[in-house]
Design the sequence.
């Protein structure tokens, strides 16, 4: 099975959100490469993840991870998103880049503060150019829930992208780890998911949601 | 019961979304005033709504409706939002204004196109000044579902506002018509709900949802 599955590189794969996604893909039989600024740290995290999941996990410096991945996931804090993506631009050519970035602006992370012009990922796509197939997804999924590999994720994933085929690949990658994902329209529509994360943080505080609130889309005929 | 309930004026109350909300409040025992550009049209719609709901419904020109309402709802297309609110500014002083506006930009209504600076309602609050207690809500609720007064609305309402007491009033007004509403943070957080409407339109198209897709927030301890 795993032989037919794409190699997924997760840049920022030692962070909570990136590690949770990486571990779930590893467990599902994908070959996973964890990228980090520090190759040694990536290797350590990869060894631990391989033991935990029984999967095929390597750890490399971000640029090498981006080169090794057939599909690349960007899961770093907003402050580092642009610089890292530009650093590894050459390694992304022709590939699908799944951007998980939420434009949180500390300290007011429960307040929506989208960048001028709309969504953070649209600005990224402009920067990287059309040679990179940027898709936005997973911004609303609680890292806490991802970390427990057997726990159901109580959040639908809105998948936004201008490249419909790339978007469909990401929808399937989410479903492969048990997460319901939906085509949410063009990349510009990522603004909704990017903004929603701050709303969910506000809701977590107000309603004391320890595990992390999520969203479900209602009204859709069964997707199973 | 109805004597203790606020008078709710719905500007744009002859439109689909406004009429659906107005009818549900009328049915729940609130005194409702329908506002329209055309007082005659408002009166006709009010008579019809009173007959249908058994409620107390009047119809007036928008400015008179705004004057009569203790709480005012703005439910007009985005293109008319600012002008109407400014026209009736004097009648809004000290009141809660519930803005239902979604900044859709035809013809691409399935594409998120938030105004510069973020949410449409934040721009409105700036325009009207602090004397009006602006709260954003109901942007994601399908007018189709509102229209069937006995149908369950399959969508949680995100209520955003800087005035927390006003926000709580709106949360309760939603619950009074059987709709789950949640405190979603400051007015800026309305950007999420404003953007989500275009995503839901995109989902309605893609997944052929006739009744209108909605959202539910997951993970919150029972609100009932």
Sequence:
């Amino acid at each position: 099975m795993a032989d037919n599955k794409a190699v997924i590189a997760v840049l920022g794969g030692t962070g909570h959100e990136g590690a949770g996604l990486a571990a779930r893909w590893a467990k599902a039989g994908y070959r996973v490469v964890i990228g980090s600024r520090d190759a040694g740290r990536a290797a350590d995290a990869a060894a631990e993840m391989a033991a935990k999941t029984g999967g095929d996990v390597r750890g490399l410096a971000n640029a090498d991870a981006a080169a090794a991945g057939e599909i690349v996931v960007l899961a770093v804090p907003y402050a580092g998103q642009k610089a890292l993506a530009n650093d590894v631009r050459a390694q992304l050519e022709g590939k699908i880049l799944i951007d998980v970035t939420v434009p949180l602006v500390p300290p007011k992370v429960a307040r929506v503060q989208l960048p001028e012009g709309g969504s953070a990922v649209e600005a990224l796509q402009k920067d990287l150019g059309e040679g990179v197939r940027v898709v936005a997804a997973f911004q609303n999924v609680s890292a806490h829930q991802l970390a427990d590999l057997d726990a159901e994720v109580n959040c639908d994933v809105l998948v936004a992208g201008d490249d419909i085929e790339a978007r469909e690949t990401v929808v399937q990658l989410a479903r492969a780890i048990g997460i319901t994902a939906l085509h949410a329209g063009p990349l510009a529509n990522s603004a909704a998911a990017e903004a929603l994360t701050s709303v969910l943080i506000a809701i977590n505080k107000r309603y004391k949601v320890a595990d992390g609130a999520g969203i479900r889309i209602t009204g859709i005929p069964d997707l199973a």
Q: What stands out?
A: Chain B has a mean pLDDT of 95. Chain B touches chain A through 47 residues (CB under 8 Å). Residues 2-206 of chain B form a domain with the Rossmann fold fold (CATH 3.40.50.720).
